[in-house]
Amino acid sequence: MRPPRAVVRDGGTWTLQTVLQRHGLGPVAGVDEAGRGASAGPLVVAAAVLRPADAKALDGLTDSKLLTPAARDHWYDRIRARALDHAVVVIPAAEVDRRGVHVANIEGMRRAVAALSMVPPGYVLTDGFPVRGFGRPALAVPKGDRVAACIAAASVLAKVTRDRIMTALDAEHDRYGFAVHKGYSTPDHEAALRAHGPCPEHRFSFANVAAVAGREVPAGLVHNGALPEQEPDPGDPEDTVGAWESLEIVTGGAGR
């Protein structure tokens, strides 16, 4: 006997969540990150669970990269007020160096979903590539932050959190222009890096920073999301949960 078909009708960015909820697989969490390609500052990962009835209230929510800074701030506040639950994980640059950005990102996603304690999700949607280890079913959604509202919400939470961190770091390290380029490798950032050398907030495992610092890039680190996922080794103390105590996790939820 064939399993019953799931009929998907075009519901915009709420289609996937609606179908999953209808088939008893919710609540649905979206996960996304900000700062993956930056050569300075933390990697920030967020997860969000939206109310099924909030499609109208959150109409216009989309990928954070498509929004102006003012619009991102607006949506950040609105998501925090209305989301059933949300969590943000901040992974310091030194941790990215130690793990590699891809492995750090995967673990950050797992941590963000695990921190959704007020409304534990039944299903997880990730942006672009598959991730295992959530303890519940998950689906990789191509261009997910433009297709699924819950992933878009996570992208906004991650992006605004990281931008604010980089603006604060600009006051501590005012020679690099972090408030402007947010740690990405723009021509101005590269020029400042060459002129002043790296600061502690730079990622020394990135080739451009390592070159200026006179170091070799550590072998085996993954800095490209197109590469296969690297699973933690249970026999390696560096891959245990306890090794991640330095991560900052900010949780919230039960919005209006």
User: Mean of residue pLDDT?
Assistant: 85
What is the helix tally? 9
User: What is the gyration radius calculated from CA atoms?
Assistant: 19 Å
Q: Give the helix proportion (percent range).
A: 25-40%
Low-confidence stretches: 1-10, 224-247
Could you give the topology of this structure?
Elements: H1 15-22, E1 28-34, E2 43-49, H2 69-82, E3 85-91, H3 93-99, H4 101-114, E4 123-127, E5 138-141, H5 144-147, H6 149-172, H7 178-181, H8 187-196, H9 207-213, E6 248-253
Parallel strand pairs: 1-4, 4-5
Antiparallel strand pairs: 1-2, 2-3, 3-6
Q: Would you mind describing this structure in some detail?
A:
It is found in: Cytoplasm. Keywords: Cytoplasm, Endonuclease, Hydrolase, Manganese, Metal-binding, Nuclease. It comes from Pseudonocardia alni subsp. carboxydivorans. Its cofactor is Mn(2+); Mg(2+). With 256 residues, the protein is α/β, with parallel strands linked by helices. Helices cover 36% and strands 14% of the residues. It is built from nine helices and six strands, in the order H-E-E-H-E-H-H-E-E-H-H-H-H-H-E. It has a six-stranded mixed beta sheet with strand order 5-4-1-2-3-6, sandwiched between helices. Strand 1 and strand 2 form a beta hairpin. The longest helix has 24 residues. The radius of gyration is 19 Å and the shape is globular. The N and C termini lie far apart (44 Å).
